[in-house]
TrEMBL record:
PROSITE patterns associated with the record: NA_SOLUT_SYMP_3 (PS50283)
Claim: Transferase is one of the keywords in the record: no
Gene Ontology molecular function terms on file: transmembrane transporter activity
Membrane topology: Multi-pass membrane protein
Main location (coarse class): membrane
Lineage summary: Bacteria, Bacillati, Actinomycetota, Actinomycetes, Kitasatosporales
Alphabetic keyword roster: Membrane, Transmembrane, Transmembrane helix, Transport
Pfam families: SSF (PF00474)
Protein's name according to its UniProt entry: Na /solute symporter
Species per Swiss-Prot/TrEMBL record: Streptomyces iranensis
Length: 485
């Protein structure tokens, strides 16, 4: 068999496997709640690996390698910041989100700031998720085009259709199960490429001799960029739809915390490996387009290892896109379709809309992907948008009295155009758009606080009774109902 045939066979086998899993899980998506929640609870380790698979898409893998090709090993902070963000999420926010048990980030914010903020937060989050999908398609299309020798545009379309359809079939449960497969394939694939790249570059000595010393400095990208990654990337993790959605799939607060910690254990080393591959590519292929850093190292592998690596990279596309599409469709269902177009609560209409919205959210970014090129920049912009929401997550849980409901609504309405506009302007004065994402809501909420105008936010979590008291209260309630009968 030729090298192409071996790779194609392994990829087809992988696609057939996740398709089978989606078909098996389709019963869980028979209701709208089953479609968006998964229809059951899962162990913390399963959800932790699921969230890791969601984050480690091609934009993270290829984008981090692309950044390292130009700036060195310090590009690993791009994913390292996400790992740190999940640690912060696990320690400070997982328990509180689980207490809320809201399936959307916008629903959680509504508890504190009202329905207007819910809609604005939903629009911001959907825009962010679709931007990430765009970056995932760009990197995935570039990868498949290089590795399989097909047109990049057609590669984007193929990825978009396949990765959207299997989510439509099985909903959230299929996303969780298939992402368990995806994360294993991704980790094996990235390790294979990293080991091969190390030897191809002549080992550590070969890298030292061939590249400037800054390429091996952990602060090579500069503290400004590293700080921006920590703000946008780390902050985005506790204000991201599919993370909040995943928290509803565990059955207690301790498991929610542990799930976040498990995720960080995958993300941090994965980021180092992806960046290391980019550094090695700068030695082995010094004159290529930086976007091809990781794919170029895959092409150099033996046929079987190339098949493993290609399958891992395709799993990166599918894993991320599945999370983005289910997250976006859930927001559209809960925040727009149900309250405005399905007020009667017709379950069949809700399920139909959820499936169509999932398909639409998977295919719409395909058009944008045909014109985008800066994978890491687009991904980072999406994280910055979510960082604006993170400000309100922190405030509603730890300082709900700060600012006002009206201030929160104005902040969100201003943050989206401010951050996107700053990004399109090229980050003037060397100020990254991530800082604009944080400063805009903080400034508006501070003005609202100093002016003393507007209604204060509500505390989103009421006092939770002790287990014994809760049992007693539940028993008294049942007895009272029995007496009234």
């Amino acid at each position: 068999m030729s090298s192409f045939q071996i790779v194609a066979l392994m990829v087809v086998a992988y696609i057939m496997l996740i398709a089978a899993v989606s078909v098996i899980a389709r019963k869980a998506g028979a209701t709208s709640e089953g479609f968006v929640r998964g229809g059951r609870v899962f162990p913390a380790a399963v959800i932790g690996l699921f969230m890791a698979s969601e984050v480690v898409g091609t934009s993270a893998s290829i984008g981090t390698a692309q950044g390292a090709y130009a700036d060195g090993i310090s590009a690993a902070w791009n994913l390292g910041a996400l790992g740190i963000g999940f640690i912060v999420f696990a320690v400070l926010f997982a328990k509180r989100f689980k207490q809320l048990d809201e399936v959307t980030i916008s629903g959680a914010l509504e508890r504190a700031y009202g329905a207007g903020v819910r809609r604005a937060a939903s629009v911001t989050m959907i825009a962010s998720l679709l931007l990430v999908a765009t970056a995932a398609y760009v990197s995935g299309g570039a990868m498949i085009s290089t590795l399989l020798g097909i047109d990049a545009g057609w590669a984007v379309v193929i990825v978009g259709v396949l990765s959207s359809v299997y989510v439509v079939i099985g909903g959230m449960r299929s996303v969780i199960y298939t992402n368990l497969i995806n994360v294993i394939v991704k980790v094996v694939g990235i390790v294979v490429v990293a080991v091969s790249a190390y030897f191809a570059a002549g080992g550590y000595e070969g890298i030292q001799v061939s590249l400037p010393s800054r390429m091996l400095d952990w602060d090579g990208v500069g503290w400004n960029q590293m700080g921006a990654w920590l703000v946008a990337g780390g902050g985005a993790m506790f204000a991201t739809q599919y993370v909040v959605q995943a928290m509803t799939a565990v059955d207690d607060e301790g498991k929610a915390r542990n799930a976040g910690l498990y995720t960080s254990l995958v993300l941090i080393p994965y980021g180092v490996l992806a960046a290391f591959i980019g550094v090695c590519a700068a030695v082995v292929h010094p004159d290529i387009d930086s976007l091809q850093a990781l794919p170029s190292m895959v092409v150099d592998l033996s046929p079987f290892l190339q098949g493993v690596a290609v399958t891992g990279l395709i799993a990166s596309v599918f894993g991320l896109i599945s999370a983005l599409t289910i997250g976006s469709s859930t927001l559209l269902l809960k925040d727009f379709y149900q309250p405005y177009f399905n007020t009667s609560g017709d379950e069949r209409k809700a399920v139909r809309f959820a499936r169509l919205a999932t398909l639409g959210c998977g295919l719409i970014p395909v058009a944008a992907a045909l014109f985008a090129s800066d994978v890491l920049g687009v991904t980072f912009l999406a994280k910055a948008l979510r960082a604006s929401l993170a400000v309100f997550v922190v405030l509603m849980f730890y300082r709900p009295s700060y600012g006002s409901r009206q201030g929160a609504l104005v902040s969100l309405c201003l943050s989206l155009p401010a951050v996107v506009g700053w990004y399109l302007a090229g980050d003037p004065f060397g100020i990254d758009n991530a800082y604009i994402a944080i400063l805009t809501p903080l400034l508006v909420m501070t003005i609202a606080q100093l002016s003393g105008r507007g209604a204060k936010a509500s505390t989103p979590i009421a006092h939770t009774p002790e287990p014994a008291a809760a049992v007693s209260a539940a028993g008294s309630f049942r007895e009272g109902r029995a007496r009234t009968r």
